[in-house]
């Protein structure tokens, strides 16, 4: 049994799920229905795991860690509800998205409910530092969403601008989740920063792999439609690298696909991305970020939770879904 599959962590995650179910409760039936639909879809639950693992690695075992882990999952779920509306997505985690099933208006409003419920829960913890970290994180995530919207259909996007979106939109909540474990444990400032660095790098690695899987994976494994990024006109790293490495014809094919959100030539574009080595290069970039995360764990004492955090570095890169 690996550290990530240990009985202790499974028990802790069951407690987090119990908090989620309890805190989702609302007298408004539609909120209950949509909230439970999206939460029950499961998912990797990496962000709440980070809260639990860093708390444990630094010696904090109070019940607040379960509440805080549920809070970050609520924030993440709210962003998914809003993302799927903006992206007009129809499939997530192998099921219809909430917006496809219940409509855009209901999805946006229930996303708002999850955000506000998360902040109610934060206040109940009575820790100003927790409020500070998560208020900052939600603001940065919103900035990342707007940045991504501005970058849509832009084949000339610089790689650094693409990475900035990842750091804002995805890595920021990973960073906050890891940092919060240290905050609960009242760890020294340098340890807290090491934890945050780990989360930021792990989140970046995770998103890089998500982006390459749009050109390497299968819908049945991903739980979303392959080619969604291209349909939405997202200039992700596999496409940017393929354009920089391909010939004039290949470059123009990808440019037009990004500009127009074309998926009718998806098979051809996947072939170009693979032939130019862009998938391998993107995975190598993800591995470099995971290596950075692993290095920051040297600040933590040896423990089963530290081993689980090391394992996450490998799993984040070597996955097919």
TrEMBL record:
Pfam families tied to this protein: polyprenyl_synt
Key words of the record: Magnesium, Metal-binding, Transferase
InterPro entries (alphabetical): Isoprenoid_synthase_dom_sf (IPR008949), Polyprenyl_synt (IPR000092), Polyprenyl_synt_CS (IPR033749)
Source species, domain of life: Bacteria
Biological process per Gene Ontology, one example term: isoprenoid biosynthetic process
Top-level class of the enzyme under EC nomenclature: transferase
Cofactor(s) required, per the database record: Mg(2+)
Catalytically driven reaction(s): 5 isopentenyl diphosphate + (2E,6E)-farnesyl diphosphate = all-trans-octaprenyl diphosphate + 5 diphosphate
Entry GO MF terms: all-trans-octaprenyl-diphosphate synthase activity; metal ion binding
Enzyme Commission code: 2.5.1.90
Annotated TM spans: none
SUPFAM superfamilies assigned: Terpenoid synthases
CDD domains from the UniProt entry: Trans_IPPS_HT (cd00685)
PANTHER family, per database record: ALL TRANS-POLYPRENYL-DIPHOSPHATE SYNTHASE PDSS1, GERANYLGERANYL PYROPHOSPHATE SYNTHASE
Family from the record: Belongs to the FPP/GGPP synthase family.
Function: Supplies octaprenyl diphosphate, the precursor for the side chain of the isoprenoid quinones ubiquinone and menaquinone.
Protein's name according to its UniProt entry: Octaprenyl diphosphate synthase
Native organism: Piscinibacter sakaiensis (Ideonella sakaiensis)
